[in-house]
Amino acid sequence: MPTRQKAEPATIVIFGASGDLTKRKLIPALFQLVKDGLLAEKITIVGFARREKSHEQFRVEIEDALVEFARSKPEAGSRELKVFSSCCYYQTGNYDSSKSFHDLKKLMDKLGEERGIDSAKANRLFYLSTPPNVFSGIVAMLGQAGYISDPNDKNRWTRVIVEKPFGRDLETAYDLNKSLSSILDESQIYRIDHYLGKETVQNIMAFRFGNSIFEPLWNRRYVSHVHITVAESVCVEGRGGYYDNSGALRDMVQNHMLQLLALVAMEPPASFAPDAVRDEKVKVLSAIPPIEKSKVNECSVRGQYAAGTIDGKLIPDYLREAGVKSNSVTETFVALRLHVDNWRWAGVPFYLRTGKALTERLTEVNIEFRQPPLALFSHIKNNDGEEQDHMKPNMLSLRVQPNEGIRLSIGMKVPGPKMILEPKDMEFSYSDVFDVEPPGAYERLILDAILGDSTLFIRQDEVEVAWKLVNGILEGWASEELPHIHLYRAGTWGPYAADEFIINDIRKTVAL
Ligand SMILES: NC(=O)c1ccc[n+]([C@@H]2O[C@H](COP(=O)([O-])OP(=O)(O)OC[C@H]3O[C@@H](n4cnc5c(N)ncnc54)[C@H](OP(=O)(O)O)[C@@H]3O)[C@@H](O)[C@H]2O)c1
Fold first, then answer.
1. Residue 9: is the preceding peptide bond cis (ω within 30°)?
2. Which of 80, 215, 264, 372 lies 20 to 30 Å from 256 when distance is taken between CA atoms?
3. For range 145-172, the mean pLDDT
4. What is the arithmetic mean of pLDDT over 415-427?
5. What is the pTM of this model?
6. Which of 90, 130, 161, 193 to mutate to test the pocket of ligand 1 (most atoms within 8 A of CB)?
């Protein structure tokens, strides 16, 4: 991965520029990159969407969004805000209209001329921040209108960032990949999963491959099982219609959680070149045997939240959220057991758990190590009079969010005359160790796309292998006459059945 060098001049076109993501994440990320001096001076940002808007209106919206959402918040009306917004333009248009794309091209050529950029040398980054049903159409229009440069052209580049979801099942993912690759070379496609832009997610690789003490333990001999948790305390936040068509498995597991699993379980890449890293991720994901339709309930627990309270706020039943079907069986929670059938991980269960309306927001990877081979202290009773034959196993926790950091739980001798051991934590928190605010995920990823580094973006085969895995579960669930869906109260850690499933499973497969 390159260091954060300064990028070449480029025009950035955001499709779906009137949307939430543009306002909350993309524009603030671009502003921060400019502020940090990481983008070239000749940066031009063009927003494209159907809503009628003038350049001036767009700039006012951008300034308001930056005052509210930027990482280093600018003063309203400040010079830095004006300088940034003066580089932003807006084109009203339809995603399926040749005329709109022709108008966009005219605007871009004009802006290029004004800034003294020869169009034969113009670098262009297109960001698809629209709903996924228009991704293919936009790329087809870009192709027709002659925006896509030859991937081997040394004088200029064209890159397209594609937002998730990359399809809603294997078939639609194939279709999307087929239509993107009929116009673009894979090297020009940047499928974004913002989890990979998080510093703490990248730190999983730094932790594993930049240190020598843990890697020798990172295998079936020493690891008993792995838990990956992505808990959200929010509900569907006004996106009930979208979420009800998606559910936790598609929304979280297919992308973010399998990416986390891949980083935790992959083999060390031969280098940090984009394809070396992505080859290893594909290999490890391909080593997970798909769950058979008939065995789906042996490997998964689904839940849906019912009314409850989070932070003193009353949360309605999921079924009463706007846009959700009253008889919906969409899962807002899922717990899964997966295996990685390779030399390193055979027999080690990986438990994945994610849900909405849970007690707190938390993303964490817990690696639980095996017990020592001999219970040396078992004959010495602890202060509660219990035998110490079952010490708490060592646990390594990689906390992705919030309070980013690493915790290692180890057995220590309690001061006193007897050899009594208790688990204690060695802990370090990012904010204590590094005195700098980490860049936001979108900052990192947009900069990488401009620099042409695709290491942290998802390759076509990664998307497909992840869908293959998830498809079997979706098909298994869909085939049930009476869906096994467990209700859980909002503000809890999910259905009791999920705890039971994991605890019993660990007892059966690990503790023996
Ligand atoms: N928001 C997030 O935090 C987040 C996180 C991860 C991924 N994403 C993904 O990023 C993309 C953009 O997210 P968003 O929250 O900004 O979405 P959004 O607000 O629903 O859509 C963005 C813009 O696309 C246009 N649009 C909406 N529906 C359309 C339709 N049926 N056909 C054509 N255009 C339509 C709208 O602009 P006009 O009507 O003016 O054209 C809208 O402002 C989505 O694919 C989403 O799944 C979002």
1. no
2. 215
3. 93
4. 90
5. 0.94
6. 130
225 is catalytic: no
Output the CA 53–ligand 1 centroid distance in Å. 17
> Partners of 405 in the beta sheet?
399, 429
The CA distance from 325 to 323, in Å, is 7
Choosing from 102, 194, 256, 484, the catalytic residue is: 256
User: Rounded to whole angstroms, how far apart are CA atoms 476 and 473?
Assistant: 5
**Residue 460 CA to ligand 1 centre (angstroms):** 22
Nearest to 284 by CA among 241, 346, 242, 376: 346
Structure tokens at 444: 């990192």
130 lines ligand 1 (CB under 6 A): yes
Strands (E) across 329-472 are located at 333-339, 349-355, 362-369, 395-401, 405-413, 421-429
Rg of the chain taking only CA atoms, in angstroms: 25
Residue 226 region, left (φ>0) first, then alpha (ψ -120 to 50), else beta? beta
Model pLDDT, residue 1? 44
Length of the chain: 512
Position in ligand 1 atom list of the atom nearest CA 23: 16
- Nearest CA to 456 among 274, 284, 268? 274
* Cis omega (within 30 of 0) for bond into 28: no
**Is the minimum distance from the CB of 163 to ligand 1 under 6 angstroms?**
yes
Whether the per-residue pLDDT at 162 is higher than 70: the answer is yes
Task: Flag whether pLDDT at 4 surpasses 80.
Answer: no
Domains assigned to the chain: 11-163 (3.40.50.720), 196-371+459-509 (3.30.360.10)
Alpha-carbon span 417 to 258, nearest angstrom: 48
Q: Which letter, b or e, does each residue of 432-458 get, where b requires 16 or more Cβ atoms within 10 Å of its Cβ?
A: eeeeeebbbbbbbbbbbbbbbbbbbbb
Is residue 424 within 8 Å of 410, Cβ to Cβ?
yes
Q: Does residue 512 register a pLDDT over 80?
A: no
Whole-angstrom distance, CA of residue 309 vs CA of residue 359: 9
pLDDT of residue 511: 52
Of 222 and 7, the one with more pLDDT: 222
Report the DSSP beta bridge partners of residue 223: 369
- Inter-residue contact 308 to 490 (CB < 8 Å): yes
| pLDDT tens track for 53-84 | 999 999 999 999 999 999 999 999 999 999 99
Please name the residue ranges forming H helices in 115-269. Answer: 135-144, 170-181, 199-209, 240-244, 248, 258-265
Mean pLDDT of 422-450: 91
- C-alpha torsion sign, points 25, 57, 162, 111: negative
Ligand 1 atom at minimal distance to the Cα of residue 242: 47
What is the pairing mode between strands 395-401 and 405-413? Answer: antiparallel
